[in-house]
C-alpha cells in the first residue's frame, strides 16, 4: 500500500511540474505547438465580416453547408472562439478575434475553393488573372473587380479536371523539390474521371503549359515535364501565407454557393485587459476564501485540499494552453465556477470521514470509508454537470453561439480535472499523512471523538 501511494505521489509531482513548466516557461511553444494564452473577441478585439450569397437561388440548406465550411476554414487559421452564424437566408456573420492578417483571412473565407486544371492552349497566363473555364464560364468577382461583360475576360478555357473530384484527404502542406530552392507548396490528388483526364492530358502535352486555376483565378502555369498517371501533384506558391490560404480553401471543402464580402469592420475589445485583470482578481479572491474556509473548518485535510486545488489550477491552465482554448469572459467564469465545484467533492469526503471517525473507526479506516461512501454522490453530481456542459456545447455549436461553447468547455474540463485532484491527489496526500495522526491529535481533523462518545453515553433527562 505504501509503495502504491509513493508511486501516485511521484506521478502527481511529475504532472504538477509539467503543468508549471507549460504555464510559467518563458517560451510560448511546446513541441512545436503554440501555447500562448488566447483571448476571445470580447477581450482582445478582431474583425467582423458579413458574407452574402451571390446566388439568388441559394437555399437555406446550402447556406448551412457554407457555414460549416467557413467554420472549418476559420479553425484552420488558428482562430478560436469564432462566431459563424446565419443572418437571414442569404448572409453569414463571421467574427474573428485577434487575426494578424485581416485581408488574407477574408480572402480565405470567401473563396469557393474550386480547383481546376485547364488547357490554356499553349498560352502562359499571368498569376492572379481571372479566367473563364468550361466548368465556370461566369466567374463571381468581388465588387471592386466586377466586370459586367464577362466576354472581356477572354475566351472560355477547357477544364481538364472537376473540382468535385478533388480528394480533400490528400491535400497537405508540402515543399517543392524542383530547382535549387525549396518553395512552399500544396500537395493534391484527384480521383475518378478527373484523375484519368489529368493523366491523359499530361501524357500528351509534354513541354506545354497547363494552368492551375483556383476559383477562376490563375495560380500558376507550370510546364508539363512528365505525365501525372495517378492524378496527383503539388502546387507551388511564393510564400507560406499563400500556401496556407490555398491549403485551407481546398482541404476544408468547397463552398456550395459563391459568397461576396458585403461589409467588414474592425471590432474593438468590449471588455479588454481590465476585465481580464478583474476576473483574475476575482478568481484569486474566491480561491483564497475557499482555502481559508477549508483550513479553518477541516484543519489538516483542508490544507491538503487547498494544495490539491492549487494543483488543479495549474493543470487546468496548462490544458487550456495546450489544446488551446480561447478564453472569453464566460470561459473564465466557467473556470472559476469549476473551482467551487472542485471543493464540493472534498467537502463530501471530509464530512463522511468525520462521521466514520465519530462512530469509532480508526483514522485509516475512516479515511477509506469516507472516500468509498462519498464517491456515488461525487460521481452523480459530476456526471450531471458534465451532461449540462455537453448540452450547452452542442447547442452553442448548432446555433453558432460559440461564447456559450467556451463556458461549457472550461466547465466540463474543470469537472474532469477536479475529479482527478479530489479522488487521486487529495486521497494520496491524506493516505501519506494519516500515520502522523493519533487519538491525541485528532483535533487536527477538526473533531473530538472523546467528546462525541461522552455525549452519546450521557443519559438524557427523559431516560432518567
Describe this structure in words.
By secondary structure, the protein is α+β, with helices and mostly antiparallel strands. It has two domains: 2-37 and 270-456, Multidrug efflux transporter AcrB transmembrane domain (Multidrug efflux transporter AcrB transmembrane fold), CATH 1.20.1640; 112-240, Gyrase A, domain 2, CATH 3.30.1360. It contains twelve helices and 16 strands. It has helices at residues 2-24, 41-44, 60-76, 102-110, 192-204, 240-251, 272-298, 300-322, 329-358, 363-398, 402-433, 449-457; strands spanning 29-30, 33-34, 38-39, 46-53, 83-87, 91-97, 115-119, 132-133, 156-159, 172-176, 183-189, 211-214, 217-220, 232-236, 259-267, 326-327. Strands 8-9-7-12-13 form a five-stranded mixed β-sheet, with no helix packed on it. A four-stranded antiparallel β-sheet has the order 5-6-4-15. It has a three-stranded antiparallel β-sheet with strand order 10-11-14, with helices on one face. A hairpin with a 3-residue loop joins strand 5 (83-87) and strand 6 (91-97). Helix 9 (329-358) packs antiparallel against helix 10 (363-398). Mean pLDDT is 79; it is low at 451-464.
Q: How many structural domains are formed by the residues?
A: 2
Within CATH, the superfamily of the largest domain carries the name Multidrug efflux transporter AcrB transmembrane domain
Query: How are the strands ordered across the major sheet?
Result: 8-9-7-12-13
Number of continuous helical runs = 12
- The dominant shape is elongated
CATH architecture of the largest domain: Up-down Bundle
CATH topology of the largest domain: Multidrug efflux transporter AcrB transmembrane fold
End-to-end Cα distance: 49 Å
Helicity level, as a percent range? 40-55%
What's the β-strand tally?
16
Beta-strand fraction estimate: 15-25%
Question: Which structural class should the secondary elements be placed in?
Answer: alpha+beta
Global Rg = 31 Å
Highest CATH level, the class of the largest domain: Mainly Alpha
Oligomerization = single chain
Rounded average pLDDT: 79
